[in-house]
Amino acid sequence: MCGIVGYVGPRQSQSILLSGLARLEYRGYDSAGIAVIDGDGALDMRKRAGKLGVLREDLKGAPMPDGTTGIGHTRWATHGGPTDLNAHPHLADDDKLAVIHNGIIENFAALKADLLSEGYEFRSETDTEVAAVLLGREYREAGGDLGAAFRATVRQLEGAFTLLAVHQDHPGLVVGARRNSPLVIGLGDGENFLGSDVAAFVEHTRNALAIGQDEIVAITPEGVEVTDFDGNPVQPEPFEVTWDAAAAEKGGWPSFMAKEVSEEPEAVANTLRGRIQDGAVVIPELEGLDDLFAGLSRIVIIACGTAAYAGQVGKYALEQWARVPVDVELAHEFRYREPVIGPDTLIVSISQSGETMDTLMAVKYARERGAKTLSICNTQGATIPRESDAVVYTHAGPEVAVASTKAFVAQITAQYLLALHIGRIRGTVSAVEAAEHVRELEAIPGKIQRVLETEQAHIEQLAHWMADTRSVLFLGRNVGYPIALEGALKLKEISYIHAEGFAAGELKHGPIALVEPGQPVFVLVPSPRHSALLHAKVVSNIQEIQARGARVIVVAEEGDAAVLPFADEVLHIPLAGALFEPLLAVVPLHIFAMGLANARGLDVDQPRNLAKSVTVE
Ligand code: F6R
């Protein structure tokens, strides 16, 4: 949450900062601001409540002097509402110093009380301004040594923070620090960048450095210096960004979400790419790490939101193919109840951003208790993979829309690869069976493409008709259950309609009371080819709700004639193996949520109250 960008170099920085912020806006869009050291050596700052567009208009109407050193921020409000005053940057040291921040400074109240007692004044309600004023005080005490002052400041802060600062007496220098919040360095030619993630600078450079936990960075046009909080030099880890700026553009699509749903086939294909050799799964990142899976007695998947639903799907494959018991836990619930974990537990965290604070804290907690940790992540250089023993990257490409779509199918794909990898090591799946599953996986991109081509127009029309619907229910059984939960989450998230997902078998234990005439209910029907019993059970669930007047929209495989008499609408998916159906069945639900939000005239990419990367607990 909150996007941060910093620049030093020969170029005027305002447009670089603003375009960096545009790429980071998915991280928060309550307010935006920039601070620049101008050509006359003065610090200029502008910040406005609202989306980045408001700031841009403001700067157009009343231009601000430009300069070659600057920082920019896009906010998701935590302390203090989304107002002009609470927007970042925050100024201190007689407005010569500007600070931006992502995270929560937990001891801000005590620090603020001290600073107030010393006569310092505050203009906002934010924890960030406390860090700014503190840095101003330390700067004076350090006799104008910005590096020393910055180190002294961050050592006093508790909680999660990425901080960037510029001081008008130090043109050509941006200092930054991180603890539990993201910050990466972009290496340019005679210029350097800082960003919450690589999207901030990918249009200028794909050469990046990852900054570790509790580290400080100083960038100048000539170079980059990284130290720990005590000033000891640290060697940052280099990496190359594997996607280019165009991948994070809308590219003619009406929204990032539309583009990302259309990229679901590619997200699966790219996650498989380079990991299949002669029909066998070979995950290069896991080479030499068989110890991670030796003596395994349990897997715990930890994640939040959509990633947790992907985990619930993955559980079926991990248990079936690797024959290890799997629990799926919401990361924020996991560490507050003394879970039973140890060296025989493998924690598999799933996170698109790799920065979700709840997930990160759960991973750290598990590691401290001796568990092994593996991260499934979509973002290079992110914190969670760096804090884990191993990582399997999903290669879904940058996901910009707040609602996760293509990352979801990539996360399931990565877990299936992992399940086959572990299954082969443990001897629980034969080479022949594994090759069969691999063939199924390889066919998935084409099948998702078919759903997009054959069903999209129909689903969008359905969504249009349902624009005034007040509530939608989703039912699924087995692997269809997490897909029902995902369908409901996506709908409430972007169309603000009440939606609930249920295990279809649970219906008669309570939720059926919600069904009244006209209630729309999506039902995910498993193929009768895999289990006639499961199929029959779902069909009878459909009959139960239809008898009570529900409007039934069925997602079923092509050729399933048994559901037709009971369905008001049928959305077809191609035939696939039982465990592979979720990768197809979720696609109509993603299209539907997007279609309904569009029909209601809502911003599908930036839904209210949300931010893509949830970096606060
Ligand atoms: C829903 C959504 C969220 C995220 C969740 C975890 O569409 O996007 O529920 O899935 O916040 O985020 P990551 O995967 O970045 O850890």
Automatic annotation (TrEMBL):
At the top of the EC hierarchy, this enzyme's class is: transferase
Matches recorded under CDD domains: GFAT (cd00714), SIS_GlmS_GlmD_1 (cd05008), SIS_GlmS_GlmD_2 (cd05009)
UniProt superkingdom: Bacteria
According to its UniProt record, the EC number is: 2.6.1.16
What InterPro entries does the database record attribute to this sequence?
Answer: GATase_2_dom, GFAT, GFAT_N, GlmS/AgaS_SIS, GlmS/FrlB_SIS, Ntn_hydrolases_N, SIS_dom, SIS_dom_sf
Name the catalysed reactions: D-fructose 6-phosphate + L-glutamine = D-glucosamine 6-phosphate + L-glutamate
Gene3D superfamilies assigned to the protein according to its UniProt record, in alphabetical order = Glucose-6-phosphate isomerase like protein, domain 1 (3.40.50.10490), Glutamine Phosphoribosylpyrophosphate, subunit 1, domain 1 (3.60.20.10)
| Localization of this protein | Cytoplasm
Molecular function in Gene Ontology: glutamine-fructose-6-phosphate transaminase (isomerizing) activity
Q: Where is the Glutamine amidotransferase type-2 domain?
A: 2-222
Active-site residues per Swiss-Prot or TrEMBL entry = C2, K612
Domain SIS span(s) in chain numbering: 289-428, 462-607
Q: Which UniProt keywords apply?
A: Aminotransferase, Cytoplasm, Glutamine amidotransferase, Repeat, Transferase
Biological role = Catalyzes the first step in hexosamine metabolism, converting fructose-6P into glucosamine-6P using glutamine as a nitrogen source.
Q: How does it assemble?
A: Homodimer.
The name this protein goes by in its record = Glutamine--fructose-6-phosphate aminotransferase [isomerizing]
Give the species.
Microbacterium candidum
